[in-house]
Amino acid sequence: MESLGNDLEYYEKCFENYLKISNRYVNWLQWIVTVFDENLLPKLKPNGRKDSSPLKMLGIGCSDGTIDYDFVRRWSAYYPKIFNRALEPGDAIENYQQIVTDKPITGATWKFHHQSWEEFCSEVPPGSEKFHFINAISVLYYMEDWRREVMNMYEYLEDGGLLLIVVTADHNRSWKLPEQFPELTDHPAEKVNSKTVEEFLKTESVNFKTVMLRTVVDISSIFEDGSADGKKLLDFLTHVKDFEQTASPEMVSKFKKYLKNGDCTYRESGRILLDNSCGALIIEKSIPK
Ligand SMILES: C[S@@+](CC[C@H](N)C(=O)[O-])C[C@H]1O[C@@H](n2cnc3c(N)ncnc32)[C@H](O)[C@@H]1O
Question: Which residues form a coiled coil (predicted)?
Fold first, then answer.
């Protein structure tokens, strides 16, 4: 079985398919309102004045930029100048560049980095540049040592700055898939979830707050013969390229049976729904007294 991570181009197709099926952007753009208005804005809002110094942002693994662009748009109502570094190793970064070209935001500038977080850290050592707002949404799974990388992210924060990390929620049963199927050795959820990040932050005495985002995915297409969406969804959930074609028939059958009848899914109006909720950790770097 080949890891989905070995083929970024195909991974992006599976991710896009997942976004479409889970209605993720609709859910997320609603959720961002809560996260932004209730948790980010009160902490980083300029003090009643239009601050003339730029808000510095860093987006890690921003894919096609849909979510990152929305954040810039929201901040631009409060900051006349925004500087945003956008990091993405995959080719989806070109779509993000296109969004910015098509819909520029007055006062906002971008620098795009077609590279991984680890490559960026070796070029710009942690702490040598500072940002007011950093986001790492659904990206820790792909880092070899996520604990070290979270502390590197923290190093880049300005005093009083905010780091938003989103990972799968610990109550989300789908992250338990690798527990049931140890053969999925490269499954991203095996490494990290909201609870492991919370526990780590506590040991480092870092201030944070968690906000949950409920996401439900209709996985019925996996059980429809010949469904192209179902194939990509199955590959995304197992993190295996061509899972059905390359895993043993016994494993495919056991996996599908678990998806259908296991404790990670439930039925509604004849559809099979998977709870794939996420936890957003909002980390604040305190201003020294
Ligand atoms: C699940 S997607 C999330 C994309 C985006 N943040 C969002 O929420 O829509 C994960 C992204 O992380 C990128 N990625 C994978 N490994 C990375 C790394 N080491 N550093 C930075 N980005 C990485 C992938 O290319 C992919 O675009």
Answer: none
Of all protein residues, the one whose alpha carbon is nearest to atom 16 of ligand 1 is 142
Q: In what order do the strands lie in the sheet with 82-87?
A: 108-113, 82-87, 55-60, 131-137, 157-168, 278-284, 207-213
**What residues line ligand 1, using a CB cutoff of 6 Å?**
15, 60-63, 67, 87-90, 92, 116-118, 137-139, 142-143
Report which of 44, 43, 110 is spatially closest to residue 82, judged by C-alpha positions: 110
- The answer for residues whose C-beta is within 8 angstroms of residue 208's C-beta and 6 or more apart is 198, 201, 281, 282, 283, 284
pLDDT at 184: 78
In testing the pocket of ligand 1, which one of 99, 114, 142, 233 has its CB within 8 Å of the most ligand atoms?
A: 142
- Quote the ligand 1 centre to 62 CA distance (angstroms): 6
Which residue matches tokens 């707050």? 209
**Cα distances (Å, whole numbers) of residue 13 to 129, 223, 241, 246, 256:** 33, 20, 11, 19, 21
* 208 CA → ligand 1 middle, Å: 22
Q: How far apart are CA 70 and CA 66, in angstroms?
A: 6
Q: Which residues pair with 281 in a beta bridge?
A: 165, 210
Mutation to probe ligand 1, out of 4, 19, 32, 63 (largest number of atoms < 8 A from CB): 63
Counting as low any pLDDT under 70, the low residues of the chain are: 24-26, 47-51, 173-176, 178, 187-190
pLDDT of residue 202: 98
User: Which amino acid residue places its CA nearest to atom 22 of ligand 1?
Assistant: 61
Which mutation among 139, 144, 156 tests ligand 1's pocket best, with the greatest number of atoms within 8 A of CB? 139
Distance CA 87, CA 62 (A): 6
pLDDT of residue 28: 75
Q: So what's the pLDDT on residue 190? A: 62
